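Hi there, hope your week has been kind to you so far. It would help a lot if you went through both lines with me. No rush at all, and the record is pasted right below:

***
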Amino acid sequence: MDNFSDKKQTSNKQSNNKQANNKQANDKQANDKQANNKQANGSSKLNYGKTFLIGTGFFASSLLWSLYNSFVPLILKDFITSSTLIGLIMTIDNAFGVIFQPLFGSLSDRTQTRFGKRMPFIMIAAPLCAVLFFFIPQMPTLFSLMLIVIIFNFGMSVWRAPIVALMPDLTPSQHWSKANGVINLMGGVASIIAFLIGGKIANSYGRSATFGMGSIVMFLAVLTLFMFVKEPVAKSPFTSTDKKEDDKKSISLSAFKNLPAKQRRNLVYLLFAIFFWFCGFNAVETFFTTFAVENLGVPEGSAAMLLAFFSVSFVAFAIPAGFIATKIGRRKSIMIGLTGLVIVFIPILFLMNLTALRILLLIGGFFWALVNINSLPMVLEIGTKAEIGTYTGYYYFFSFSASIFSPIVFGFIRDLTQNYATLFIYTPIVFAIALFCISCTSLTDNKA
């Protein structure tokens, strides 16, 4: 009887222990699940504060380029009478972008320092560019001016791809479109500030004061990035020999060769789509004001203000374009944008009504936001996390090539036709070619 009682007590004790263990295991599983859900929810939202801090570098870069493109032709005119030569000098930044940005973007992928892999390029080249920018309007001779301009353009090419790669480095891939929208919004605001405030400063205090403002903004941007944006510092997984070999591969941009055949085909079509839609954009950016003056008879200032409708609309829809891509996918957003641009620009050929033109340009800015905001994230998603700088270089190689190629090609077309209105035949055609290229890809629409 006692043995039976002891066995029963032992059995009950074991049962109680088993229940306690099961309860503990269930509690632990529930806590783990809750922690995982909390972590997932935490990553489901874009950190806008951090994104704005990352965007300070792009803000400063956009400000400098807007001032550079506005005032350097006027400075060159003090030394050079040939408009063709001035135009050629103004393409130096695009040529350097094609040659050097892929190189330094790729090189930054394989850089390992205690500051990170992008920051060394930014910390060294950006302050140097700020100093050089300050001295551009103060050069007394054409030789000294060209020396400063060439070194400045090279310096900007050193850090542009790394600063752009910083956003995808520090942002989950499902948020790249929204983050790119924020950063492009900052770039658009910087351009507006450059035109409005920079113009007023130049009128009141001269060109040197405007360039000084740009230099100060650049220094503040670099300081902000250094203090508040911290890159994760990872130890290099390579041995010294392997790392040197991989650096050679990276610099030669052989990441393309390492892609599977299907992804390689997707990347080729995507990059050519980027080339053609930037051909359309650069042609409009370069020749629209001349078209408005020659064909519509409006003053130069009013012609520039017409194009501002397109720019302001782009800035206003930069962030919404990222949200739209999050909902329906980047590829679909770009295809809608390109279709809209074709539809918007064709009627301009037949319209001479300024009110209708302003409305069409406002609509066009929205469609351009759908295209431009989502193009870089699509390119980056084809590569790996370790190749972000390389793929950023691919993107800029094709976009900058378009900015060199397109003005020359349309300039030749205009010379043959003697009519700037052919801009609105050329532009829909190249946008349509871009639409064809993007439709040939089999890239999956990525949604958050």
Q: What stands out?
A: Residues 384 and 405 are 30 Å apart (CA to CA).
